[in-house]
Structures
1.
Amino acid sequence: MKKYLALAALVLLLQGCAGANNHQTIDTGLAPAPTEKPTLPAKPTTSIDTGLAKAPIGLPNPADKYCLEVGGQVINKTTAEGVRSVCQLKDGTQKDAWEYYREQIKR
């Protein structure tokens, strides 16, 4: 009798561990989480020129703008630190655009 009682208890225990899939779902109005990664549309084979890429972005460099206003020419030079602007004045002298701008603004 003890064997049957132990066997019945074991069966009930295993059934409880397995659990029934009787979960109630509550509709929250939210979309369910996606189960698959979204796929991106294929890239178009032809491009449409909207002219937007040619439009200037942001504000001009104040030092470069000042150099041009006084009749100079802006020359971009690539150095180990990156690109720097040089202002070539009417008389041919070249100065760092930012240094020249700061010198002239202080006056």
2.
Amino acid sequence: MKQFPAAALAGLIFLLTPALSANAQQSLYDSHFHYLNYNQDRGMLIRPLREAMKAGKVINGTSYRISRSTLFGIPLQQRWDPSALSGMPAKGTNITWTATNIDPNVGAGHPFYYLDTHPELYYYSGVDPLIAAAYCSDTTGLTAGPNGISFWDPMITGFNPADVHAVDHMMRMMAVYPGVFRGIGEFTVHKEVVSTKVAGARPSFDDGALDQVFRSAAALGLVVILHSDMYDFLDSNAVNTAAYFDATYNFLAKTKQYFADYQTPGVIWAHTGVGRFTPQTRSKAVVAKHLDRLKKIIADQDLKHVAFDISWDYVAKFLTNVVDVGNEPDTTEWLAAMNDPTNDWSVRFVWGSDSLSPPSGGAYLGNLDPYIPILTADYTRERAAVKIQNGNYKRIFDDPLRVMARKYYAKKSAGAGWQCNRDAVIPDVAADDLNDTVYAADKVGLTTRLKSRIDTLITQFPLAARATRNPG
């Protein structure tokens, strides 16, 4: 397949993009973007993709532009088995996989997606260097975000959350690529059929490895994006049982201690806990029941560190009661929750596209339409829509204490300074760096505890440091 030079593509996008200046403009920050797919393959080149995202799309007279975005891949790779062209039942289920999407340019049986063939999925750590390389290759993107910051916020995904070695991997990636990664995820605990296809040990809220992952991410200043379905997709009564809700709820409550010093959420529960096949029955009553579960979390003081992303067009359709129904979007239940006078829901949600290696700018921007009823709903709380569109993302990722933690670990672990044409020397970290008024009362105490947590982590996981530090 022929490829055009990136510069030519960027110019073509500019010429073909309609003028948007005459329209009202909204700035979106994408909290959930997969640059790579289940074969660790990209779609559009990163630079022209960024330009297309920033150019945006006009919907109902309003220009929606992407001003900033996360950047991550998929932690799992689909095993390529040429003999798996015929369908067969997935392990432990009556679901049959069929090879419906085969790439003729790559070879027989090359799968595009985890639903296409029956072979298992396995964790692939090479995804994170690929993301770091893409991030660093977009030199303009390093300062193309709001106020000259980076457009991209890369995330670490290439680890098995059922294995404590996940912490080693996180620390190695931060040491090898200092200043690059801002969080971990999206990674999965419970995910419909994916959980049935993962090779080896599967993560559980009962195992100690997952607890170590959350503890370490909090210490290192990394935002956590967790995918865990509330509902068992094989349960015909899933909407009432919500088989995994209690376990998720209890686990997240236990992680409160790790995020206690932060004044912003550190965990983003992807898709609000909705999975591909669940709830299997959909109605306004089902939406209300789902929102009641979110309300329980939002009202719990032990879960202030948990936010939700409204990512994936399916979730937007579910929350506005249009999935498999065909009716016009209805935000009645959503607004009843968001306008709750007793709990401020507006500070706990971020928008995300959940776009997967889009082949074109149009493919990416096509994800926006289902979210418009949510982004333009009649909220009673001041600036609620803006918080969902970009404000909460900024608060979470730019939390001064998180930024300090990432810098301090880089200073302690990395030998080569900042990457991607940044300053040659990693800056020192001092209490005065916490210039946010939220943290003004205890700058010294917060800084001391932050350094202590990271120093302890380095001592507890010495293999990560040994693998990356230069001798002498």
